[in-house]
Amino acid sequence: MSPTYDVIVIGLGGMGSAAAHHLSARGARVLGLERYGPVHRRGSSHGGSRITRQSYFEDPAYVPLLLRAYELYETLERDTGRDIATLCGGLMAGRPDSRTVAGSLLSARTWDLPHEILDAKEIRRRFPTLTPEDDEVALHETRAGFLRPENTVAAHLQLATRAGADLHFEEPLLRWEPYRDGVRVHTAEDTYTAGQLVVCPGAWAPRLLADLGVPFGIERQVMYWFQPDGGTGPFRPDNHPIWIWETADGVQSYGFPALDGPDQGVKVAFFRKGTVCTPDTIERTVHEHEVAAMGSHVARHAPALPGRFLKAATCMYSNTPDEHFVIARHPAHPASVTVACGFSGHGFKFVPVVGEILADLALTGTTAHPIELFDPHRLSTIHAPGVRP
Ligand SMILES: Cc1cc2nc3c(=O)[nH]c(=O)nc-3n(C[C@H](O)[C@H](O)[C@H](O)COP(=O)(O)OP(=O)(O)OC[C@H]3O[C@@H](n4cnc5c(N)ncnc54)[C@H](O)[C@@H]3O)c2cc1C
Question: Where does FAD bind (predicted)?
Answer without folding.
Answer: 6-36
